[in-house]
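Suppose you are handed a protein chain with no further information: no name, no annotation, nothing but its sequence. What can you learn? This example shows the usual starting point.
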Amino acid sequence: MRIVLGVGGGIAAYKVASLLRLFTEAGHNVTVIPTEASTRFVGSATWEALSGNPVSNSVFDDVHQVNHVRLGHEADLVVVAPATADLLAKAATGQAGDLLTNTLLMAHGPVLFAPAMHTEMWQHAATRANVETLRGRGAAVLEPATGRLTGADSGPGRLPEPEAIFAAAMALVEGRQDFQLPLAGRTITISAGGTREPLDPVRFLGNRSSGKQGVALAVAARNAGANVRLLAAHMEVPPPAGVEVVQVETALQMREAALAAAADSDVVIMSAAVADFRPAEVSDTKIKKRDDRTDPVITLVRNPDILLELVELRNSTVRGEGHQLIVGFAAETGDSDGDVLAHAEAKLQRKGCDLLVVNHVGTDKVFGQDTTSVVILARSGSEPQEASGTKTEVSAAIISRIAFELNAVSPRA
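A reasonable first move is to predict its three-dimensional structure. Written in structure tokens, the prediction is:
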């Protein structure tokens, strides 16, 4: 696929190098057109080296090839990132002062703008009108992410992560309606992996969790445009790029991190396998075998119920229930008292979370595997939703359901 990648003059231009890499590694032929202002942030040599194509922003370069007409005609996709307030205004009013704005006027294929600017600029009536004008003409304009901006400010206006822009671009080309990032501007906290409860300096009580599901959820949420915070216990897979990572080890550390992270989160997903119990005492020295062959006695105590605390904390705030979506995970096995879903339904009512993702677990199921099968239960009583396949596919289904629930209860203004 032939892609034109327009680069606007904002500090976020450095992130676009990663977006370019994603396009080229996927096999696409990319021509980069930086604005003159953007070259103050990232030079043309960088774009040429990464794309393998010559770079220009002037209509007077290679005049014999009529680039100001040809590039737009030939492009299967045009992506502009960062799309500054200035660029959006020029595109909306049909200006053609450089090679990029000429190319936008000549584009026959889909056009995707990924805005990045200060919050007040994004929320200004002029910018909003320009965005609506572009959307009305058929261009795709993503919602910016919310987060740290230039300097100490924070708010909506941050460039979405390169992976999210890439996912939106591919969806747009494929004609899918989900190109608009459904979680843009939302903050999601996800716990992943298995906690380890120390017994002595070399031993711990742990579980079989690999962290694969939590990482897949983080990727899916990031690709849906969310600002993702990953509370990472022990994991056998690395955390994904483009997310904030908070390392924890024990259930108590997970509790502290989760309660702190919940304060600014629109969604909290507790997918980590948090130990239910921990040793009552932790030895300062390695516990050794005794000469008299007596066995050590290890007393366990309960760990806090983090999911329940998160629900209680959410419900006790001024805004109360409804302003934050809380998702729990249940790794269940059937027994003489009931099957997996019976135990899960009881847990959902007991915990009070909004959604519960249920796994049927065992020594050869779920833990460490690349495929899984889940049932999503809702406290609202809606019909249970099944999802199966790779953990990537299942995570996409879970994030899609979360986006639906979140936007239904608390739509963006």
